[in-house]
Amino acid sequence: VQLVESGGGLAQPGESLRLSCAASGFNFSTYGVNWYRQAPGKDRKLVASISSSGFTTTYANSVKGRFTISRDNAKNMAYLQMNNLMSEDTAVYYCYASRGTVQYWGQGTQVTVSS
Q1: pLDDT tens digits along 31-58
Q2: Using CA atoms, how far apart are residues 110 and 29, in angstroms rounded to an integer?
Q3: Fewest CB within 10 angstroms: 2, 27, 80, 100, which?
Q4: Is residue 93 within 8 Å of 34, Cβ to Cβ?
């Protein structure tokens, strides 16, 4: 079982990044997916969620209107499109998949927003 994030990096304020999460080893289409982030010295926080079907999404207030979570169950992929990035978006971003009590975490990808 694996969740592998990619797409992080350095961006300037106002720019965009798209994070990807590649799933393998489990029936991805039956799992809900969340993106979390953890800034240095802070707790890990939920950023966005998407249901197994992709029909339902939710967002933290801090990213609402700027970030979009999506998934492609045919490709076993989840995405986080991040627009209008701000310095406070700097964090390690983690992909998380869950179904009932079963949960998987990715290793994280660093996003740094700085001019």
Answers
A1: 999 999 999 999 999 999 999 999 999 9
A2: 26
A3: 100
A4: no
